[in-house]
Amino acid sequence: MDLKKTTIKVGILTISDTRTPSQSNIDSFDSSGQNLIKLINDSNVIESAKVVQYDCVTDDFDLIQAKMTEWCSERKVDVLLSTGGTGLSPRDVTPEATLGLVQKLIPGISQAIINESLKFTPMAMLSRAVSGIYEKTLIINLPGSSKASEECLYVVASVIPHAVSLIKDEKQISKQFHKQLNITGHNESRIPEYVTKIACRHRESPFPKISMKSALSILKEHAVLQYTENNKIKYPTVWIFSTGDELESIKDSHSGYIRDTNSLMIKQILEQDNYKGQIFNHGIIRDNWDDLCKHFEEAFNNADILVTSGGVSMGEKDLIKHVLKDHFKSKIHFGRVNMKPGMPTTFVTLIFKDKKKYIFCLPGNPVSAGVCTHLFLLPYLRAVSGKKLIIHSLKAKLTHTIKGLDIRPEYRRALLTYENGELYVSCLNSHQQSSRLLSFIGSNCLLQLPSSSKITNVESSAIMDVILIKSIENTYIAPILKEMNLCIEIIKKQAILSNTKNEKPLLYSCIEDVLHLMTENIFVAKTEIIPTECAMGYILYSPINSSENLPQFQASIKDGYAIKYGNNWFKKSNVFNVVQVSVAGTVPSCQKEIGEGECTRISTGAPLPPGANCVVQVEDTLVKTKSSDGQVEITIAILNEPKLFENIRSIGSDISIGQRLLDQNTVLGPFEIALLRSVGCKDVEVYKCPSIHIVACDDNSAYAISHKLKNMLKVSDFKGNIFNQSIFKRLTKSPKQFDFVFDYDNPIIIFCGNVDEFCNDNVESHIHISNNTRKISLGFGRMFIGIEEKSVVFLHINTSDSESIYNCVHLFILPFLRFITGRKKIISSIKTKCNMSSEYLPIDKFEKAELHYENGDFKVTCFTMNHQSCLVNMPSSFEEINIKLKRENITELDAIVTENSDCYFIHY
């Protein structure tokens, strides 16, 4: 027996003293009963059901029982749905009449109705409705109001066919129903009607476009700091999902699908920003009501913040806002922002099990998702982490004129550079589409452009606002690196297979010379191949070209209709027959070719059907006719003449086969990794980070130094392993003392304390740096072990002074580590302003200071215990200070950047 061909006969019995089927009097019209008939006959709420009996009776016990007995005993109906008479009024006797008739009670149905109804109103607890079986008929009492009876019908609609088959003992029907239930999902019937009726959906978003300022103000209102029992900041847990039927993981991807890049990219952006809370990437959710409900509920059980990408626009598969609003009863604070890209960005809050949850719904296009992560999610997380500055905004001079502004304020990917004390921004990449991840490569900021409603062009040299998303490219070389103000003695020695070659001492007098000596022929670079998803922060060893086209098929860039456009447009009718649907994830080869007068309803990112040569956006169309159930449009009218190839992404328009994606020595960040994953690149060859072994020699003070060193290196960008070794009381002349490190490739040993005995025979070179106020000793060298000439690099710090250690690490050790792991730039320097008079300035030494950005300038504050983020070289005499002093006691100083802050990122 075919389940679909078996009709379930339904009777609707309205019980009321005031209601009649007549529409002549709107006040007495039975809206509840008639609405149930439409839901069943027209909307097919109950699978394979049809209303065959309908009547209205008054609130009379005998009349109710008589009508129920007639319909059930004569087998006129399989299901009898009564509406009305279930309350507490003396006239409400429907439950009593039903109880006097039924032979078996089904309390589970009544309980399910009450449980669901309580989500809408507390008055549901006053309902006395019952459910049961009389003869072979299922009887269910529903409330009397039209709205309440509809909601309750949706609760039980999915189980009614199965209940009927059990009552009739029709095992074959029951078996088929179970099979169908497993396919469709048990909650599908609860999907709101306006979601399932695609043709009736809004063709424009019901959410107003709010300004960026208003959106950030709303986020600020909800950024509440929370604390643990120990009065420490409690960092919210974040769960991240990508949504879409078209998405596949990089392992499972195949033709017709798009690789998921967003979920990992968003997670890595948060990690790059040093967010201290837990972050979980839970991959992909399908565009399915039940799947979204299930995974969202799991997220709310385990996390404080949910981040999604995709499913927030106006397409037929964009269900997220509907699920959050209708299923979870959430509050949508904003559903659109007046910006480009990222207009559909949505922020939602809800109460789940007495706890408040925060949901960031980001667009699905990778660029939009990345931009909105920086503009909305990061500022919010910084705020709830207690940071004062939540947006890294700077001002820079535009290097060129920009024409053709968008009607919406735009955030373009751009390059911010620092040259000789000034910041410059350039936006030379014309390909800014929201699907094109390549627009992020070579960019480090978002350039804020105004709406075209205010100005038409932005002229060169205009001062623009930019928001940092990566490090600033630093081209300035501070004079202090080149100044001959240091006395450096270098004694070069070389140890190869126990043969030592001594050389005469060489004198150097600036830091740049020392760095050059340390990095010249001192280390043989090693590489390793690692999974792309684990490569954040590593340096790419060789360039990477694309092995495929992206997209691999012609795709739509708008929600709308794909048509075959011809030159004789005005001679044809503008009405088109809708013959098929193409959504993201549709296999291109499965589509039929469309002809003239035909069209395909198409979603953003979906493949173009054969024969189509343009896409008309949905806003330029009008539905002319619909199917009888209102589910889909049959014909549509196109209101404006389209253009050939309009709204189409051609094959390879984002990335073409053989195109250069990343250059050698590129630092791999979230956007670079997302780009590689988008074209299926699973593994990359990167510079290998050596292991560092810190050895304390001679005494406990050296042991303390070793721990200071380890802590400094841990907070740097070095990605290798760092080990602290035991105190060495005595060093022999044999390299066997260090056999424990030889298992590592190119290990680095840093000695703390007196190692003169060892250095005499085994260290290749030794540097002494000194000036009038401080002496720094830094030794370095290379040893070849055995006939394989395996190299071990030795560094030596012979000081217990904390400031000297700090200087050694940031002026020599970290630049050296950056060099051997592939960094293009190993030390960063900038011009700063210091608001001090000469009487407060120390002279002739490097001073730790706090570097910050204020009113368009980098400034330093010396003698602070706050955020010490740079080294400034103080003038060597009071005369020099007086020369450098400017108006209002402003002194210009050069600084070496040692740490990034909340307001800037300096690339080195």
Task: List its salient traits.
19 helices; alpha/beta; 9-stranded mixed sheet; 908 residues; elongated
Could you walk me through the main structural features you see in this protein, from its secondary elements to its overall organization?
There is one protein chain. By secondary structure, this protein is α/β, with parallel strands linked by helices. 23% of the residues lie in helices and 28% in strands. Strands 23, 24, 25, 38, 39, 40, 41, 42 and 43 form a 9-stranded mixed beta sheet that branches. A 6-stranded mixed beta sheet has the order 2-1-3-6-5-4, with helices on both faces. Strand 38, helix 16 (700-714) and strand 39 (722-724) form a beta-alpha-beta unit. Helix 1 (31-41) runs parallel beside helix 5 and helix 9 (212-222) packs across helix 13. The longest helix has 19 residues, at 366-384.
Could you give a short description of this structure?
The chain has 908 residues and is of the alpha/beta class.
List the topology elements.
Elements: E1 8-15, H1 31-41, E2 49-57, H2 61-73, E3 79-83, H3 94-99, E4 104-105, H4 107-117, E5 131-134, E6 137-142, H5 146-156, H6 160-167, H7 171-184, H8 193-196, E7 209-210, H9 212-222, E8 238-243, E9 247-248, E10 258-259, H10 262-272, E11 279-285, H11 289-302, E12 305-309, H12 320-327, E13 331-334, E14 336-337, E15 346-352, E16 355-362, H13 366-384, E17 393-398, E18 410-419, E19 422-426, E20 445-449, E21 463-468, E22 473-474, E23 487-496, E24 499-502, E25 506-508, H14 511-519, E26 527-531, E27 544-545, E28 555-556, E29 560-563, E30 575-582, E31 598-602, E32 614-617, E33 621-626, E34 633-638, E35 648-649, E36 660-662, H15 670-678, E37 683-687, E38 692-696, H16 700-714, E39 722-724, E40 748-752, H17 756-762, E41 765-770, E42 775-785, E43 790-797, H18 802-820, E44 829-835, E45 846-854, E46 857-862, E47 870-873, H19 878-884, E48 890-897
Parallel strand pairs: 1-2, 1-3, 3-6, 7-14, 8-11, 8-12, 9-10, 12-16, 17-19, 18-22, 23-42, 30-31, 38-39, 38-40, 40-43, 44-46
Antiparallel strand pairs: 4-5, 5-6, 13-15, 15-16, 17-21, 18-19, 18-20, 20-21, 23-24, 23-25, 23-41, 26-37, 27-36, 28-35, 29-31, 29-32, 30-34, 33-34, 41-42, 42-43, 44-48, 45-46, 45-47, 47-48
Helix pairs in contact: 1-5, 4-5, 6-7, 9-13, 10-13, 10-15, 14-18, 16-18
